[in-house]
Protein: Outer membrane lipoprotein-sorting protein
Organism: Spirosoma telluris
Amino acid sequence: MKKIQLILFLLSINSFVGLAQSKKTPNPPAPGFDLAGSDARAVQIADEVMAAMGGRTAWDGTQLIAWNFDSVRKIIWDKWSGDVRVDNLHDDQTVLLNINNDMGRVYRHGEEVLIADSVTKYVKQGKRNWINDSFWLLMPFRLKDAGVTLKYLGAEATQMGKPADVLQVSFKNGSLMPGARYKIWVDKKSHLVSQWAHFQKPTDQQPAFILPWDDYQQYSNILLSSNRGDHDITDIMIFTGLPGEVFSDFTRIDISRYPATK
């Protein structure tokens, strides 16, 4: 009888520990996140950022995101399927691809590109565009992505004089952005990213730029920021559904006629 009671007691302890751990990790890292190389304080701040942006559940439940990057490209991304549409805004080039399998189709100069090497070239270009443009919009949600290492650099005011905690975000070889390094300022009160800097090489001492990260607005269940100084992010929309031809037809559709989630 005592043996049975002991087993039940141990099972209850394990259940309690498991529940406590699940409550402590509402924002689990992506497979491949460099947890061992990251500072515990930096990881904690990244989790606070996720919570301030709407939370992991809201982010995971966000399916379709559309935005214009710097008046150069329009991106429509289905997070759940990996389908992406990249429309150049200064010419007729459109790339339809899936970022999970790197398969895609290309339209430019009035016709679909059919030469295999050219398709591969422009699909790779389209994926690079998506990597860049999505990071400029969605970086706060991606602080624990595969290949990321987080370091806590201490407290430092932004250029606007706001108190902030500063993180270094670096990417390991083999990640989507190998060698990239960023410095981000997280507001001490709101726990939102308020400023960022980009270093072109891991060894650079001076950043290529320091830009604001502000003008937050609510889109569906998450917050998104559009102000990057001289680089505009406009026409941000979130949808729960769009016609399939958005990712299969080169004809450019005015998606603003479909109801975006508020």
Notes: The domain at 28-257 is CATH 2.50.20 (outer membrane lipoprotein receptor (LolB), chain A).
